[in-house]
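Trying the structure run again after the queue cleared.
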Amino acid sequence: MFFQSVFARLRRLASVNKLVGGLTREFWIGHLLVMISTVLGVYLAAHSGLKTAVEFDAISSDRDNYYLRANLRDEIRYNISIAEKFIVTIDKLGSFHRSNYPAFQTYVLETMKEQSNTLKTPNVILNGTLQYYDRVDRLLAQKQSGGINVRVLATKLRKEIDKYNKNVMTQLDKNLIDLKKRLDDNGVVIYE
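Done. Tokens:
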């Protein structure tokens, strides 16, 4: 309806050689085209800007997730190496004292509680890690209270480590490879 009335007015204007104030129809048609191209240009620029902003946000999120998960993987590997030292000591000496070993590091895991990207971590990785820590802590508490002996502790620790490496660590490594590939495809440099 609007466009029909605009075109009707343009037809009327085109039939008149001179308009109010001595302006020609070419003047009005030129200005109309400038207005249309301005509106179209603003729309296209806004659309392109939004698309670029969304892509940038996705790439930034992928980069942040990559660093978060890579640090989580490194922290878990460190903690697994401590648990494996328990097992070696138990196998060698038949006993061990927890105080002779460094504490498990949980800085990254604790920091993840405050990060918005934590919930973007795949469920199998996040829950698998939390469950692993819970089971290992329970085993160490049972040993401390005398509920299990050191040989049983070593066997159960080995089982938990193997289960974690098989079910969770492989998924974490695969996820990091996928994230790194996506970042490489977008020209993002990852510093390791």
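The mean pLDDT is 85. Worth checking whether this holds up in the mutant runs.
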